[in-house]
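Ligand: adenosine-5'-diphosphate. Inputs:
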Amino acid sequence: MPLKSKKIYSIFFIYWILLAYIIAALIFWFITLNNQSQLMSELKKQNIPLNAQNYQSQIEKIENDSKKKVNQYNGEGSIFLLVIMAGALVFYKAVRRQFKISQEQQNFMMAITHELKTPIAVAKLNLETMQKRKLDENQQQRLIYNTISETNRLDTLCNNMLISSQIEAGGYRFVKEEIDLGKLVDTCTEEFITRYPNRTINKNIEKEIFITGDPMLLQIAVNNLIENAIKYSPKDMPVGINLELNDTVAELQVTDNGPGIEDDEKKKVFAKFYRLGNEATKRAKGTGLGLYITRKIVKNHGGNIFILNNTNAGSIFTIQLAVIV
Ligand code: ADP
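Predicted complex:
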């Protein structure tokens, strides 16, 4: 267990002990007060002379007073207990949430450092190799291709990071213009076909589907889905990009034959920094920002995004956006 987690768990342990002590003290005082009140009323009763005229009514009055006191202790004690419990629950949840966020951020920082350093190191090495050695055309092309794909990865990562922080800080101004979604998706797809010449990328894209939106953001969203389909499915399996018009809704589907996503994870993968924990996924590079920002962009365009299971294996990421009518 990391040192930080150990510290948090000991803080939680002390917290529960303290809470238990407060509740035990409250119960102790409640019992003591009740006993004392009973003792007082007994004493009061004993002080009434047996031959007093209104003996019975005085006894009844003392008993009624004592009952009232007990009810008062019950009421005040329960409210006090409720307030303590509610406060403790709110505090516990806040600390836990903070702990989770800080852990996710730590994971993110580790992932981001790795994600930033790797493409830079690869590109540097490739360029140095080309500078120092006389390479044949084939080798040179391979290195150039490799360098371009690494810088593309860096570009996607920077875009995702910048846009997500800008949107969160409320500093991003959404562009609203008429876009041919068919053309946009086709351009993104063609770029991936060039970037991944060894992958089978099947496209079935209807042209002239017009929507209102921000072309740069939509491009980021579409790229993230295609990138994931390629990243999380075996190299010899095809990836599909389909765009069609259903009534007044443009539906984009990005399909793959990878490991797929379990039903109970289908919503969670859109959370910030969330990454699935299986071994196949862990081997793939990533930060857990792609789907988060994609969902944000789709929601900002008034659309829907969801995941379906592909027949046999894999996932179908679907985006629905309203078209201009
Ligand atoms: P990243 O790819 O950087 O980890 P994303 O937000 O794009 O972050 O994705 C979050 C997680 O969702 C990924 O880590 C992966 O586990 C899972 N995921 C995304 N797309 C797919 C896919 N097409 N098939 C299987 N799992 C996927």
